[in-house]
Structures are given as C-alpha cells and as structure tokens.
Amino acid sequence: MDLQQLRSFAAVARHRHFTHAATELHIGQPAVSQHVRRLEAELGVRLLSRTTRSVAVTEAGRLLLERVERALGELDAGVAELAELRGLVRGRLTIGAMQWLEPYDLPAALASFHQLHPGIDIRVVEEVAESMLGGVLADELDVAFVPIDEGIPPGLSSERLFEDELVLVVSAEHRLAGRAHVGVAALRDEPFVFLREGTGLRRALERAARAAGFEPKASFETNELARVLALVARGLGVSAVSRAVVEAAADPVVAIPLRPALRRRVGLVWRSGRHRTPAANAFLAHVLGESAAQPAGVAQMRARRG
Fold first, then answer.
1. Per-residue confidence (pLDDT) for residue 306, from 0 to 100
2. Domains of the chain, each with CATH number or no CATH
3. Beta partners for 57?
C-alpha cells in the first residue's frame, strides 16, 4: 500500500468516475485503475463496485474512505505548513515606503522583523503613493506604507498606523514668518515648492488649496523632501510638510500651523482576497501586532476594501 494508491482510490470514490479522478490527479486513467486494483489486492476486499456505466463505493470502501481522507488532509496540511516554513526561512519581501514615515519607525520594525526571520531578503522601494498602490495591486510590492486619506482602490486593505499634522513652511525672511497661524486661502498667490506628481504630500496640499478656491502654482518640483526644505529656506517658495520633518530639518525654515488644520493619515496597505507569500503574511502580522500595542490614537482604525 502506498500514498499514490490511497490518493487514486479517494479521488475515484469522490468523483465516482476513473477518468475524472485521473484528471484531478494529473495522471493517466490506466494508472488510476492500476492503483485501485493493487490496493484492493493488498487489502483483500473490494473497495469499488464497477460497471460499464458507473462506479459505486462498497461498504468496505466507505469505511476506508473516511480514514483515508482524514489522513490525506492531515498530510496535505503538514506539507503546506512546511512550505510556509520554507518561505520564512528563505523568503523575499518587497516593501513600498514614502520618504518620511515618522513617527512610525520603519527601520526599527525591519530590524525586529529581521531578528525573527533572518533568512528573508528585504527590499524597500521609495516611490510616489500612486505608483506604490499600483505596485501592490500588480503584486510588484507585497505591502506599502502610504497616505490613505483619499481611500484605497478596490482589492486592497489597509491599517492606519498614525495621523500627523502638516504645517506650512516658509523662509525666516518670508512675510508670513511671524504669524501664529495661516489660512490656506492666504497662500493663493504664493509660489509652491512641491514634491513630484503623485506623492501623498503634494496631493494633500493640492486638495486643501482647491477647497480654499485656488489652484496652487508649482514653481519648483523635486524628488527629495530634504530639497523641498532647502529650496523653501532660500526663499524660493512655500510648502507644507509633516511637523516631524521640520523638527529634523537641516535647513532653517519656519513652521506655521495651517487653518483649517491639515492632517494626514498614513497606513500600511496590502493586497486582499488572494494568496500572499509566507514572508508577506509574517511581515503583516508583525507590523499590525506592533501597531495594536501602540498607545491609543496611533493605530486604532482599520479600513478594509475588496
């Protein structure tokens, strides 16, 4: 008695048909018939009753089938668990991340994950939010850290990690530098320094400007957040960035609260409704487990689509 004989018998018993069983098992129908005959010969009982038009399971066959299916189920589950383990030992993980994630500490999360799964190779890709969402949908990225204020496309799920305040940044010599706060409408005639199209930061500021009744003028555009602050510090325009960015800025800029306040939600996004790699599942569990342990307000809301 061997495993292939048991699989062939169980498949014929389920389908009541040798050809259909052979199709399921991806082997020829004569091989299935031979497996069943050999099993019956070894056990000394008839398991299947065959006619030219039908196949029926005998009483002995029913007794054996229940145990065979249970045993095969356990075996298949064990094989699947080993595959999961192998994926965690030698897996790959591709993560999309916006340029500035503070107060979320991505390097710390990657370090603690690496301690748990040192065999997983990790690649971090910095791209604009639109591209990263598309990358997750296309299975080019396993997960992405992106702004989620505008919602996420169907087929994706998300978990909010934090919410931060965006503040106006101007040079020390700018006419608004001494203000306690500034209304977005007061920026109508100001030149803006923007990150490139498709970034969450730029889209948040453009939405606020349009809500105030104007289209912001992009005088300078760059790929680097540090360069945005450098250009603002030299009086070449204004912009809006996370307050945490200003606190860590190398260039001298003045941060001014906006009215109405401009806030941004940032979350982890992943593909829903389809198989993910063991490495991706492990990273999701790691990050979501850590966020659930954070103080109230850091990660309490889940938004799921698809």
1. 32
2. 3-78 (1.10.10.10), 92-161+265-304 (3.40.190.10), 163-264 (3.40.190.290)
3. 48
